[in-house]
User: What shape does this take?
Amino acid sequence: MSLALFNQLSIAICIVDHAYTITRTNECFLNHLAVNQSTVVGRSLLACFPVHRQFLQQNIDSVFSTQTPLLSSGSVIVDTSLEVGSDAAHKWQDIEFLPIPSACGVVTQVAICFYRPTMLAAPKQDSVTTMSDSQRLKRSSDAYQEVVSELKQLQSQLLQSEKMASIGQISAGIAHEINNPIAFISSNIRTLYDYLEKYSAYVHQLDEKIDATANKVLIADRQALKDKIQLDYLLEDASDLIEESLEGISRVMTIVKDLNEFSRADNGEWVSTDVRRGIDSTLKIIHNEIKYAIEIERNYSPQTPDIICQPMQLNQVFLNLLINAAQAIEGEGKINILVAPLDDEHLMIKIKDNGQGIPDEALTTIFEPFYTTKPVGQGTGLGLSVSRDIIAAHGGQITVKSELGKGTTFTIVLPCSDNCADEIASSDEQAIRGGHSA
Assistant: This one.
């Protein structure tokens, strides 16, 4: 969901992680608590509502554990952070807890939706303003429609992530199926090439025998027959055709190898990988997208260490960034790729293009789901959002710098030490089990 749409919702929403820490809120939530973003983000949700600490904690834990939405209909939460009757005192009825999966399918955050906020009456207030049934019904209906819209968008993001994983598995299967017929076709053509060489040797020896007879009639008949069927041309051209076929097969086998390398299923396992190989295989996969006018400059440090990661997931990130870079370049241009250690425990990857650049106002929202600067129908707005989630799941960070007319640079920082890798794997496993840190 775009930041603008998120803030326009009349439902108070905050997003928390496993430690119940608020990572994000919308304007409705902030307005009802009369606080600003910097005051709330990073604070424990349980501290904001101490009276309802147990209720919130149990429901958040349940969503992390079951990875399914939870609606607590009729529940009432009262904000007691300020004096009852003040402008910031509210109560919320009906609270929904929604799981937010990462690109890897693991629930890493929970969104808490507070519906039907109403002002609490002061103890000595003589009259209480109440909503009519029709007003209450309309507000509930509007809130329901907004939640449905949000859930549809979250579902689309999850489906996109699942689709990418399915494409990887299908591609790996196709690569395996292509390898088998290509292997015997290659073997047969090489055997045919051997046969052709033996036949050519036979024709050559036969010519020598005929010439040795000095029989002019026989020699003339042989030459007439060779001219009629263009034997010399056939033997030469057949050799060229076979060599070209073998070269074509070799190219297909290379493409299949690159496709298999790019999309090999990692089954969720964390393995030691050289990211330079993943970038190279990705470049080969998108060769047709960039080969005509875009120069690729690789700057790979020889000291680049292997990192513990999910290769197919990182390859998806490289694919998204490289295609975006290629599409940002009009006409001729250059993409520079840098891979080098940042320090003893981190690896840095930079993908820089000299394309159109990104406007300043878009830089803060390009990682939001469904945000895109591409024309309608040419982009889902999920590529960078999925990439950010994948990098976050690897314990890394992705940042962007851009200048209009000069280009864009995406920087990825990933942990590369064994200790960091163990922590990531442990955290990922904990998230799958639905655990949390207190």
